[in-house]
Amino acid sequence: MNIYILVALILFSVMAVFLRDLLKSAICLAVASIFLAVMFFRMGATYAGVFEVSVVAGLITVLFITVIALTNDDAKVPENKWPIIIFPVALAIFIIFDIWFMNKFIILPSKALPLLAQGEKFGDVLWGQRTFDLLGQIGVIFAGVFGVFAFFRRKTDE
Q1: DSSP label of 62
Q2: Which of 14, 27, 41, 140 is most buried, judging by how many CB atoms fall within 10 Å of its CB?
Q3: Comparing 126 with 90, which gets the higher pLDDT?
Q4: What is the total count of domains within the chain?
Q5: Is 103 contained in some domain?
Q6: Burial of 32 by CB count in 10 Å (0-12 exposed, 13-18 middle, 19+ buried)?
């Protein structure tokens, strides 16, 4: 089951990059985020799953679609062809590097169980030790919201 979720996550992520229509791309990004949240829930990281669904699949997608709807003037801008070449090459390099690098950190489950018993709770780490990350994410959310507000104000002033 996990492999199907992972394939769907990769498929919708790639579609979000390669689709030419921004609205379809934003929707594919939201669907990819939902599949990522499902992966988080299946791995037991419920806080990360809830955060992924509420912020990325929810708020950020609404902001993307709002901005796309407000700024779409039906003008087709010519696109560069280099992402079609660069993206697959960069993805292949990343996959090779990931396989090579992450094999060093794979621990057998029998050796990992004592380490997991000593670990801290995910919620304590996320909300207690990573507050600066959360402040940055909150700042990005507010920047997006205020950008949309400023755009609405400019539209009404004209």
Answers
A1: H
A2: 27
A3: 90
A4: 1
A5: yes
A6: buried
